[in-house]
Specification:
single chain; 186 residues; ten-stranded mixed β-sheet; 17% helix; alpha+beta
Length: 186
């Protein structure tokens, strides 16, 4: 078995050449990455469904826009909560994944977590890769791997996140942020 260097906590930014419509201009936050596979959520796919429509108790704690995000093409009927909680200790019902970002147990009463939350986002589904699958996609040039920032999870303008993340990179990656949605219009 080959050792996999963990990319947990980093962002996968879809290259313009990535042909999969599920990940067109996607920004994926990796929540788990090891030799057994990878799991993440797409940060820039808001849906028209409000958090209140599906998880009314959590609606008041969800950041703007207060909608459910499509976290990826896997298990779209399952909800996953991500929250940014500053400090060293997190409350009951929250499990640190990396840095200040962690998973929220959506079965926990929201009032237990509410006072500690810096930001909350709800995702329907997730993005997943089997063992070695993501590494193959990286070798094929489908993704840029960049550092995440805590504000990426709760960006109030998710539709611009792909460009924002690329723009803050150095060199060639920053220039890719200017890539047209439809290159034929150039």
């Amino acid at each position: 078995m080959t050792e996999v260097s963990s990319l947990t906590g980093r962002l996968l930014v879809a290259t313009p050449a990535l042909a999969d419509p599920n990940f067109d201009r996607a920004v994926v936050l990796l929540l788990d990455h090891d030799d057994e596979g990878s799991l993440g959520v797409v940060l820039n796919r808001p849906t028209p469904v409000t958090v209140g429509d599906v998880l009314a108790a959590w609606a008041g704690l969800a950041g703007e826009p207060g909608v459910v995000f499509q976290g990826g093409p896997v298990s779209l009927d399952a909800a996953l909560g991500l929250a940014v909680i500053p400090g060293d200790e997190g409350p009951l019902g929250w499990r640190r994944v990396f840095g200040a970002i962690g998973l929220v147990d959506l079965e926990t009463p929201p009032e237990l977590l509410g006072p500690a939350l810096g930001a909350l986002r709800i995702f329907a589904g997730y993005a997943g890769w089997g063992p070695g699958q993501l590494e193959t996609e990286l070798t094929e040039g489908a993704w840029y791997v960049v550092e995440s920032e805590p504000g990426d999870v709760s960006s109030p303008t998710p539709e611009t996140l792909w460009r924002q993340v690329l723009r803050r990179q150095r060199g060639e990656l920053a220039m890719i942020a200017t890539y047209l949605d439809d290159p034929s219009l150039n």
